[in-house]
Amino acid sequence: MKPFTPYLTCMLLLSACAVGPDFKAPEPPKDATYGSAVTAGHDGGASPKLVTSDAVPEQWWQLFQSRSLSQLVAQGLANSPTLAAAQARLISARETLDADSAWVLFPRADAALNSSRQRISGASFGNAGNPRIFTVHNAALQLSYSIDAFGGGQRYLELGEAGVAYEACQLEAARLTLITNIVTAAVAEASLREQVKATEAIIADATSLLEMSEKQFELGVIGKAELLSQRTTLAQTRSQLPPLQKAVASMRHQLAVLTGNMPDGQGQPEMAMDELVLPDEIPLTIASELTRRRPDVLAAEAALHQANARVGVATSNMYPKLALSASYATEATKIADLFNAGSVVWGLGAGLTQPLFRAGELRARRRAALADFDQAAADYRQRVLTAFADVADALSAIALDGRLLRLETEAEKLAGETLAIVREQHSQGAVSLLMLLDAQQRYQQLRINLIRARAAMFNDTAALMFALGGGWQQGHSSGNADVMEKQQ
């Protein structure tokens, strides 16, 4: 947060004079709740336990205990052009506010030094035949100040403060989105790599069995139909490998872009699924605090504050404006005489401007500002509803995918035990090659299903962290909006 600057003090002193409505931050929804999704599906599933907390850990991705994942996130935060652009927009908003504050709250002083050489004909003095050439030197100090009698300037600065708060929220939202995208892309890449390995294992087993079947066919032990069936199965399994490899490459390229690297992937760590640990407990922000934690909701609130300030600006344009000016200067034909007492000229001025007839323009602009405020208020309410729906969706996904993960784990375990028995029986000649091949393929397919189920749980957890605001610890005040900032 920026230090409390002098112009904010001036704004507070002038606040009683400002026309237009004062901004009040929206209250959190009454009886806010995530619905039945909090408890749905936790009967015997593999879902992490939800622990009520004031906030999500700031570095929530470390819940997965993966060094490679932490390296990827660090690269993204350091190199992302998206974050750099958001940071630049925030700096621009701050500097613009500083410039506007100087223009509104303080008088302006300008110094000027001029020299000019002129020729006049003398006709103006009744002597057309006697032209004169002379040099005029001028040194002047000019002062001007606009009195903010009705608070239009204050409302304009309030608009700028809300704009800075909006950009700070947008920066945090970009940061949260980037981290979540990196986590989900890294999990997807690791999952696809594991699926490639499982598919390659299926192909290897099928190839080995096919070689044995080829020999048995030559000996007349099995028929040609059985041999062709195995060849067809192997061909079908091999056809599944290229799409998986293509998806791995695509996800690798996407992850490189997210971390600010070229698609060649140099310097980009590869993460394996067994590196990731699903946490036993994950924090769940209490529902009444959600609107104070989500950067997109706070950005919508800042936009609402901006719309409120624009109403004040439009209202102030209907009131008189008072401007003061003063000048002190010297004029002489010689530089040596420029600062003599007789060369001094000065002036004082005051101007009052009151709109009298604008054909309804100013009232129409104020009505438009009020309509913009209503739109911003509706957008804020929609953003709040979306935030609660995001959390509810993530909670339901965690609960139901937890059930699926438990079932897939049990199925994979049983398939592994079955495969071990069939292998033993086949070695003793009790079962056919087709039965062994079927058991191997069933096990590998269930292994792939288990990999996908684990990846879904990691992605669901990341989605919940995103929906809860991603560990943003800083608050947001109404009134004169505090600038929320995580990166300098």
Task: Explain what the structure shows.
The structure is a single chain. With 488 residues, this protein is α+β, with helices and mostly antiparallel strands. The chain has a single domain (6-106, 150-318, 361-467), classed as Outer membrane efflux proteins (OEP). It is built from 9 helices and 6 strands; from the N terminus they run H-E-H-H-E-E-H-H-H-E-H-E-E-H-H. The protein has helices at 6-14, 67-79, 81-105, 152-219, 224-239, 241-258, 295-316, 361-427, 433-467, and strands at residues 49-53, 108-120, 132-147, 281-285, 321-332, 344-353. Strands 2-3-5-6 form a 4-stranded antiparallel sheet. The protein has a two-stranded parallel ribbon with strand order 1-4. Helix 3 (81-105) runs antiparallel to helix 4. The longest helix is centred in the middle third of the chain and has 68 residues, at 152-219. The radius of gyration is 37 Å and the shape is elongated. It is a lipid-anchor. It is found in: Cell membrane. Pfam families: OEP (PF02321).
List keywords for this structure.
OMP_efflux; elongated; efflux transmembrane transporter activity; 56% helix; alpha+beta; transmembrane; Outer membrane efflux proteins (OEP); transmembrane beta strand; two-stranded parallel sheet; 488 residues; disordered C terminus; 6 strands; Efflux transporter, outer membrane factor (OMF) lipoprotein, NodT family
